[in-house]
Amino acid sequence: MQREIQLICGAVRIPDLPGFLKTINKIASENEVIVQGLNTDLIAGERHLHFAVGKALKAVATGTNVAKDPGIEIMRYAAGERQIERSFSIGLHEGENNVVFVLLGTMDKLLLAFSELRKVLEEKPCSELLAYSASKRQGILSLFRITDAEIEASGEEHIPELVIERVALADFLK
Asked: Fewest CB atoms less than 10 Å from the CB: which of 4, 93, 99, 137?
């Protein structure tokens, strides 16, 4: 059976993170799909997200994954981290969130999960929320530990590529 990948993006207010994650996990398990939420304010563009998802799925397929849960593996790569604990920094938090939910499953099940997720967020275009922008700069530099020297050497416009490099190196950095 062919597993598909779908994205849904939007804004969500989370008063209670454990309660919200329980709701998301319930949607995932009832619809037999994987749902992983990520903070789009720390995503450096669509290429970053797609590259991370691809690396995570390849790791799961080849048995080289660090996390047992494919959703956590996606989060780990998206954060460019070898350590699962540290990858949670790219996840959701209490308060206002710009979010992308990555869904994996069969198309019929994804559509059901999609309609459930639409009830918990104010949908916005993924192209808007995932795009790299100056407002994301500080959070991304901090999360991915990008130095002034790296920016000086490669140029401000190459910050998204530096992030993708971190994702590519996630398996090797300890």
From this structure: 93
Q: Is 110 helix (H, G, I), strand (E, B) or coil?
A: helix
Could you identify the residue written with the tokens 């047992």? 68
**Strands 122-123 and 4-14, how do they pair?**
antiparallel
- Tell which phi-psi region holds residue 117, choosing left (phi > 0), alpha (psi between -120 and 50) or beta: alpha
Q: Which two tokens stand for residue 108?
A: 């019929």
DSSP characters over 91-103: S--SEEEEEEEEE
Q: pTM of the prediction?
A: 0.94
Q: What is the pLDDT along the chain (174 residues), one digit of tens a residue?
A: 567 999 999 999 999 999 999 999 999 999 999 999 999 999 999 999 999 999 999 999 999 999 999 999 999 999 999 888 999 999 999 999 999 999 999 999 999 999 999 999 999 999 999 999 999 999 999 999 999 999 999 999 999 999 999 999 988 755
